[in-house]
Design a protein that fits this description.
The chain is of the alpha+beta class. The chain has 3 domains: about 150 residues, Globin-like (Orthogonal Bundle); about 100 residues, no CATH class; about 90 residues, no CATH class. Helices cover about 60% and strands about 10% of the residues. It is built from 16 helices and 8 strands. Helix 3 crosses helix 4, helix 13 crosses helix 14 and helix 13 crosses helix 15. The protein is rod-shaped and about 120 Å long. The two termini are about 65 Å apart. InterPro entries: CdaR-like_regulators (IPR051448), PucR-like_N (IPR058663), PucR_C-HTH_dom (IPR025736), PucR_C-HTH_sf (IPR042070).
Length: about 425
């Protein structure tokens, strides 16, 4: 109730003469007619001549209010639960119909005005004292407030229930779209309709990492979101539409977020798999997260390299075996030089500029590499393999602090310890 103190103590209801109830009862039907007529005249939403059920509900509400009011005047301890429950149900019904409480609250004010007008007219006839009339006005306002509070409470409960159910449907829809193999198209269409989610032609999935801000990100209403998953995830409809990229970036500001590739709706599982893989590489430091939202399509070659890390490691074991007997520091220098040489069209001067070392140093290292790898450096296919494993090695070493090195031999390290050449 809006005023627990007055309800518990019985005041100001207890200040009203009990005999007032006897004077009011004979006029209740007449007052109800006046209230209904005034409400329908002043509140357009309640003027429905052809809707008998709606008129019946209005009359029922008015009569319940009037009878409870008179019963409470006769007995201040009269239980308010039935009438407040009734208005709580009205609030739930308004929410269920998709309406606001504005019309109902206006109708309550109009009804209260009519009731107060009739009471003041009767008070004059009965010669009621100003103090008693003031108490009548106070309980009338308190009563209106209690009913409005009950209606608002029911309205909020219904809205919360609808929102909760809609959110559950949307999470379930996200599950269906991320399923691999995908769910039936008909099942997705049915659930999308139930979740009030218009089916787009294309989507992009998003995998979320840590929040840098305390606030929860706010997403546009057409974005499917489930932040309770082990990897919080989203589905963004029409990600390549006008202004959508900026909209997504704003919504995800302050959050580590990876957007997967744009795909047809039924391929959402592929988009989220790419987004999760990219996120994993970002979290390991393989892919740098400088600022803003990360997009998988900008790191395709890295994703390909790390699609099967075991396979890349095995290829590295095979192709980098000539480095296995060297100390780790020597391996690093020669691997860096070999990668730069492969990337610069085998031009020693360009390698020197890339590595910021003297060209003579580069030539010395290249002679070492020719001795170690021999004719392998003349084979285009082997050079391609070498560039793959050296790129992966460089990404791990530079960003993630990991190394891919041949595992099959041992050598003495820089400080004299035995070093096993494997991924660390």
């Amino acid at each position: 109730m809006a005023n627990d103190g007055s309800t518990t103590s019985g005041r100001p209801w207890a200040d009203l003469p009990r005999e007032l109830a006897d004077h009011m009862r004979p006029h209740l039907d007449e007052v109800a007619d006046d209230m209904i007529q005034e409400i329908q005249t002043r509140v357009r939403e309640y003027d429905r001549p052809g809707d008998g059920s709606y008129s019946g509900t209005l009359r029922l509400a008015v009569e319940r209010v009037l009878h409870y009011f008179v019963d409470r005047v006769a007995d201040p301890a009269h239980d308010p639960a039935p009438v407040t429950d009734f208005f709580r149900a009205i609030g739930r019904g308004e929410a269920g119909e998709g309406r606001s409480l504005d019309a109902m609250q206006t109708a309550m004010r109009v009804g209260g005005m009519v009731a107060w007008r009739r009471m003041t007219e009767g008070a004059e006839v009965l010669q009621v004292s100003p103090r008693t009339l003031g108490a009548v006005g106070e309980v009338l306002m308190e009563f209106q407030d209690d009913l409005a509070h009950a209606a608002a409470e029911g309205f909020s409960q219904a809205k919360a229930a609808v929102a909760g159910e809609m959110q559950r449907r949307r999470k379930r829809l996200l599950d269906l779209l991320f399923a691999d193999p995908p769910a039936a198209q008909e099942a997705i269409a049915d659930l999308a309709a139930a979740a009030h989610w218009p089916i787009p032609r294309t989507i992009a999935a998003v995998a979320l990492g840590r929040h840098q801000d305390a606030r929860q990100p706010a997403f546009p209403p057409d974005v499917l979101a489930d932040l309770t998953r082990r990897t919080p995830s989203l589905i963004i409809p029409d990600p390549d539409g006008p202004g959508r990229a900026k909209l997504v970036d704003r919504a995800l500001a302050g959050t580590l977020a990876v957007v997967g590739p744009t795909v047809p709706l039924m391929e959402a599982a592929r988009s989220i798999q790419w987004a999760r893989k990219t996120l994993s590489l970002v979290q390991r430091g393989v892919i740098e997260a400088d600022s803003g939202v990360i997009r998988s399509v900008e790191h395709m070659s890295t994703l390909i390299l790390f699609q099967d890390e075991g396979l890349v490691t095995s290829l590295a074991d095979l192709r980098l075996a000539p480095l296995a007997h060297l100390r780790p520091s020597q391996q690093d220098r020669l691997a860096e030089t070999l990668l730069a040489w492969l990337q610069s069209g085998r031009n020693a001067n360009e390698v020197a500029m890339r590595l910021h070392v003297h060209p003579q140093t580069v030539r010395y290292r290249l002679r070492q590499l020719e001795e170690l790898f021999g004719d392998q450096l003349l084979d285009p296919d082997l050079r391609f393999d070498l560039e793959i494993v050296l790129r992966a090695r460089a990404l791990l070493a530079d960003n993630a602090g990991e190394r891919i090195i041949p595992p099959s031999r041992e050598a003495v390290g820089d400080s004299g310890e035995v070093v096993s050449f494997r991924r660390t």
